[in-house]
Automatic annotation (TrEMBL):
Protein name as catalogued: Thiamine-binding protein
Species this chain originates from: Arthrospiribacter ruber
PANTHER family from the UniProt entry: UPF0045 PROTEIN ECM15
Domain Thiamine-binding protein: 10-97
InterPro entries: Thiamine_BP, UPF0045_domain
Top-level lineage group: Bacteria
Residues making up the signal peptide according to the UniProt record: none
A cellular component annotation (GO) from this entry: cytosol
Transmembrane parts of this sequence: none
Coiled coil start-end: none
Length: 99
């Protein structure tokens, strides 16, 4: 198991005939927020920073939370940035825009 830091972007699109999609997405974001990993919520996806195995576990918990909240199904899209010999940090990419 590698402790190398990566970025994982996750977009969860819930499908429900009766429930509001934004309310369902909030359930996924709550899981990510409670995980304690560094993350950035954007209008289209949430980007997390940490070890790949941990981020994938959080992503699975987030999708399960949306289903448990009543979604009929979810579409889940992942994007990962992984470097061979160094960590990937959110700050390195967007830090100059958030100060």
């Amino acid at each position: 198991m590698s402790d190398k830091i990566i970025n994982l972007g996750i977009q969860i699109i819930p499908k429900s005939k009766t429930l509001d999609a934004y309310t369902l997405v909030d359930k996924a974001i709550e899981i990510i927020q409670r995980s304690g990993v560094k993350h950035v919520v954007t209008p289209f996806e949430t980007v997390m920073e940490g070890p790949q195995e941990k981020l994938m576990e959080i992503a699975r918990n987030a999708q399960d939370a949306v289903l448990a909240a009543g979604a009929d199904e979810v579409l889940v899209y992942y994007r990962m940035q992984i470097r061979n010999h160094e960590d990937v940090r959110i700050e390195d990419k967007i830090g100059k825009y958030t100060k």
